[in-house]
């Protein structure tokens, strides 16, 4: 049984390992293992995760069974868009998928931002499982970008949004 809780600095190495495993399982066939390793090293470095953990306008959650981190989620209020929370990460270990962990993390993240009216995310266009998950949880496609994440990544993404209950 996994319980969703706020992440701590002691969780970051396990979270980083989970992200590496999940990213390779999800994206190797799209980008190739070398590109996935490069993105993981950059986007999920210990310093990057620690900075997210310290962000006061965010929530960094893990699903923990006492031995294993089975999933993680990270969302933060947008700096550019008012009343919008950005869902930056929602990942579940491949061996723990389809057990409700992603649903439980997502449900918790939805309630963490009382001033937000919209939740927004970017998703890889070929990640059909993630797209189906988000659509099942009320998201609709509102656009596309050629630069997923910060900067000029050159990685395309679909942009999805969901109104949040007030």
From TrEMBL:
GO terms for cellular component: ribosome. One of its GO terms (molecular function) is acyltransferase activity, transferring groups other than amino-acyl groups. Pfam families: Acetyltransf_10 (PF13673). PROSITE patterns: GNAT. Keywords: Acyltransferase, Ribonucleoprotein, Ribosomal protein, Transferase. SUPFAM superfamilies: Acyl-CoA N-acyltransferases (Nat). InterPro entries: Acyl_CoA_acyltransferase (IPR016181), Bact_Acetyltransf (IPR050832), GNAT_dom (IPR000182). The keyword GTP-binding does not apply. The keyword tRNA-binding does not apply. Residues 2-165 form the N-acetyltransferase domain. Signal peptide: none annotated. This is Ribosomal protein S18 acetylase RimI-like enzyme. It comes from Rhizobium lusitanum.
